[in-house]
Amino acid sequence: MLAADSCGSGGVAGNFTVLHFADAKIDSPLGYFDGPLGGHMVSDDAGVVTLINRFDDLRHMALSEADSAEMLVAVPEQQHRKARPMPGLSKVTWRKSTISDAGGNCVEVALTHSIVGVRDTKNREDGMLAFTRENWVAFL
Fold it and tell me: Of 12, 24, 76, 127, which has the highest C-beta tally within 10 A?
């Protein structure tokens, strides 16, 4: 389970699976993902590696089993009473951008295998922007 303050969905718009076979020399891993227009099989090595990296990113951002269980209890309580904040631990390491000024106009950046997160240093609770690495490089 991902916390609301994690990097969103890890760049994944739906379900995905990576299949590893007993003998990778004979049968290379395959990937499958659900997209807006249906399911897609991924058999090229680069595409499968991208799915594996996204899985690793999501696993890194995921809440612990105990925190997930706490969230499953907290969400319905919040909906009914709005009393208890939803638990969430950001598992991503944020660092201050090197392009920040002394006047406090700063952003923080978090890097994963496939996602670059950006947030306002002074307003961390206001959320963040998530970019694919390709889009981030194009932006820079």
Answer: 12
